[in-house]
Amino acid sequence: MGWFNVKVELEQTSVFEIELEADDYYEAQQIVQNGVWNDDYTKDIRTTLEIVDENYKAIEMCEDCNAEMDYCVCEEDKDE
Ligand SMILES: [Zn+2]
Questions:
Q1: Which pTM does this prediction carry?
Q2: pLDDT band at 76 (very low <50, low <70, confident <90, very high)
Q3: Least buried of 10, 47, 59, 80, by fewest C-beta within 10 Å?
């Protein structure tokens, strides 16, 4: 058994529609864009979220010095 650090990289997409009242299409887009960045649509985003790409990279770590195994300088007790 070893100790690992796994880096997760997810590419996600989310498609949903918002209906609202506005003066013109520019204002409508602006309001919704602000809403996205202000976390007003987190529920819509979460329920429509799809993972389109995923990447996992595991690195073995030394439990004693918490360094990557390749850079570990602990000489003793490497195996139990
Ligand atoms: Zn170490």
A1: 0.64
A2: low
A3: 80
